[in-house]
Specification:
This protein is of the alpha/beta class and 397 residues long. The chain has helices spanning 5-16, 19-25, 45-52, 55-62, 69-76, 124-135, 145-150, 169-181, 200-204, 209-214, 247-256, 269-277, 299-310, 325-333, 343-352, 354-375, 391-395; strands spanning 81-83, 98-100, 103-105, 109-111, 139-141, 156-160, 187-190, 261-266, 282-285, 316-319, 338-341, 388-390. Bound molecules: flavin mononucleotide. Flavin mononucleotide binds next to α4 and α15. Flavin mononucleotide binds at residues 60-61, 74, 112-116, 142, 159, 190, 264, 286, 288-289, 291, 319-322, 341-343, 346.
Length: 397
Amino acid sequence: MRYSRRHAIRCFAAFAAAPFARAQQAGAPLDLNDPLFQPVRVMDFAPLAKAKLDPIAWGYLETGSEDEVTLRRNREAFDDLVIRPRSLVRMQSVDLATQFLGRNLDFPIVLCPAGGKNCFFPNGEAEVARAAAAAKAVHIHNSGAEQVQASGKGPVWWQLTTGAQISSSTNMRRWVRSLEDRGCSGICFSVDIMYVSHRDRNLRNKLDRAWCEAGIPPRDAQGNLPKPQNPERAGVYPARRTPTPDWNTVGELCSLTKLPVSIKGILRGDDAELAIQHGVRCIHVSNHGARQLDHTPATIEVLSEIAQAVKGRVPVVVDGGFRRGTDIFKAIALGATAVAIARPYLYGLAAFGQRGVERVIELLRTELALDMALAGTPNLAAIDRGMVKYRREYRQL
Ligand SMILES: Cc1cc2nc3c(=O)[nH]c(=O)nc-3n(C[C@H](O)[C@H](O)[C@H](O)COP(=O)(O)O)c2cc1C
């Protein structure tokens, strides 16, 4: 693959636009003693976040559902895949740019919706929105639309919950119009949270959901929190005020708006097919960060099945356990257009606010670029299916 000098300069310029790289280039003094620069990988932000958070907030951030089998699998399954680097490919530059629903993205990393950011950092959603806008990352947010909009011009997506907005055609129409009027670039419909699962850590901590919205209240001199008004309870089947949506709801939503609708929570190829038939423009492979049904597959395990069903008709986003550049590389090889993250940027948020989120994005995209260079893949298109193999395939040889 040949690259012109102009192309190489353009790619380098795009990469160097990252905020910290930019500061370095501009000759601004970088204070390497700044605690922000101590983490060398995104998981190094986790202990910093834990140290800053109330244990209940930390539990809410980290928890999976029930026995957390899927939570562990989301990470372990990456080890089943190996990368097969190409030798002696000219690597003057690395281009992370991709096309996503008609937009140019500088890199294939999206910020997932995450509720309860105020229990990680004051005004958390706005901090994340500012970071996303600075990094020019897609940010799927789920609250405080006005604040998010005020924060910058990043390509913002809204999350559609499974509640009041879709309880009737009238509500859905009204809601969709308000998103269009605000300049939202897409709608993300999370379909795996019809009910909130049993998350043992939250149950043991007697987490009151209202605390996630308002922030964890201060503890008294004895270290006690105020009595929760409505703690999560085991052995109680959760109530639902509105009917659960179905494929007709999806079809209606897609017909009501010109905005692209993405379905988040797809774990099967046949559901991906159904989604496309109902007008969905993006498939988001997700098990909700292992926070909903336990014993579902790791997302990297089902990605191939879904990419094969989608056959390139719409972009495929995948989330769940992405912590390193090599994880992203593997997902691109298996057919993902982009990868989405939640806990990593929430660690950054809890530890440093907006700067932490930006630094997490920067670490991940830098790792991805370096991994691509080492693998002999100058751009995302070069990361084809042949770049990875399952370990078991080697055992069979
Ligand atoms: C604290 C927290 C809150 C979340 N809230 C939501 C939510 O409101 N809606 C949603 O669709 N997904 C939610 N998720 C799931 C994420 O969007 C995403 O699917 C998942 O966490 C990605 O996996 P990762 O955390 O391992 O990166 C939440 C995840 C976390 C950790």
